[in-house]
Amino acid sequence: MDAKIASPLVDCLQYANWSPSVFTEMRAGGVHAVHATIAYHENFRETVANIIAWNRHFERHPDLIFPGRSGSDIERAMREGRTAIFFGLQNPSPIEDDIGLIEVCHMLGVRFMQLSYNNQSLLATGCYEGEDPGITRFGRQAIAEMNRVGMVIDMSHSAERSTLEAIEISTRPIAITHANPHWWHPALRNKSDTVLKALAQSGGMLGLSLYPHHLKDGSNCTLESFCAMVADTASRYGVEHVGIGSDLCQDQPDSVVTWMRNGRWSKATDYGEGSAAAAGFPRQPAWFGSNADLGNLRHGLRNAGFSEEEVGGIMGGNWLRFYTASFGPMP
């Protein structure tokens, strides 16, 4: 393998306004794999429609992207100079109230599913709820089924007790694909030291977020500050458990925030992070505005004291190992 790409670049969460220009910027940034959100509040049939739209992208742009199904597809992307797209759900709404749809979604290419998105779901509690009763009866069975087929439990938007219970219940390591430590920046969505210790001890993965609401100093967060946080996170929980999950919403109109926050459940926007005065997408930090900028992190991580091997792991090698172990059926 070419030494220049001895380790992959994997972004474990994006919700971009997908287009040829975004796919071209993925290549410009040397991005080998992206976990792409294909549903927030959609039901099963609406999620299938989103997959159909992705199939058209794959058909029209085969020189840039292809569907990712296993860790080996990241290695294929490295060889071929393309980007593997892995599907994920930010809410369990696509499985509705039917546990059989977990396997069907996996067959359609879904490899990640959050058990809740901010609110209480049929499976778990979201981080904006005032009370967290933990994983539900349906949630326990859903976790077992996800473990069986090879779909990763993602607790990025879930509350504390629910997240800790998911780590305990799951027989396979789980992921928090896009969040930062609460001790660095006390955003509601960032994760406590207790959660991150349990995640690492169970073999799970943390994707560090570049979304301004999750960053110390927000849109003004510097590359140096972010990479210093990465170094502290790695020292506390182990560098092998750390990756990137940028939460990039590139080229999305501000109106999309209404869908993300409201879904169908509310007439008033649930702003959550941010305020009514700034309901749209926040400005990205100057050093990360698009997929073409992801490579900037390598330089920042080197300056923060990481070895080349550690940089390679954080930028994608750790996710490659996790994908390889997680996406197939239980051994």
UniProtKB/TrEMBL annotation:
Alphabetized PROSITE patterns for the sequence: RENAL_DIPEPTIDASE_2 (PS51365)
Pfam families tied to this protein: Peptidase_M19
Membrane spanning stretches: none
The protein's name: Dipeptidase
Taxonomic source organism: Shinella lacus
Alphabetical list of InterPro entries matching this protein: Metal_Hydrolase (IPR032466), Pept_M19 (IPR008257)
Domain of life where this protein originates: Bacteria
